[in-house]
Give the backbone structure.
Amino acid sequence: MERRSYAPVFDARTIAEYAVFIAIILAMRIMGLSMIPVGPLKMTLTMVPIAIGAMLLGPLGGAILGGVFGFTSLYDAMTGTSVMTGFFFQVSPFLTFLLCVGTRILVGAATGWLFQLFRKLDPKRIWCWFAGGLAAPMLNTILFMGFIVLVFYQTEYVQKTAAKLGAVNPLMFVILLVGLQGLVEWLTGCVIGGGVAKAVARALKRDGKEPAKDARPLPAEGSPENEEARK
């Protein structure tokens, strides 16, 4: 049976790992790396530690880290720091909570689940880490923007933004609004998130690799097998 490559739940080491990832997310927030203003949206690099955490800690870890990031995003909406989500909060605080927090929890959990699938499809652990690193920012874009289109597309703010961008339909609105920002997030998550997660997993001996099928332990000194091998 394949050994898990993510940490168990509820032991001291795992709690410490959660604390490290949460500290990284909050530090990125304080340093302004969490949300970088790009037009009406804010480009986020926080999906990188969330992706790494989801791959190393599993779906639950990804969900917890996604929730931490989601609450920082909700704070921006409540304070008006984010113009778009701030407008949405005035329209519906509950739906904005689902947008900012709910979608990010789902992103983290789904990244962990997808990575488990990628590991099974990649027994040599060559590309699964990079696919997992890409999954988090990609899912964040799809779920976050998809929720906006489904729930808030007819609001005055979105309609004015769509008209300004020249978007004739919701799909074009998403493409024009996300644009290069989304590609940067995806590339960063894939390269940096995947590379760091792979390196950390190897350092912690949590890469989940199985020993070669023909690998056998060396016979003990003085055993019949050892004496036979010497002949």
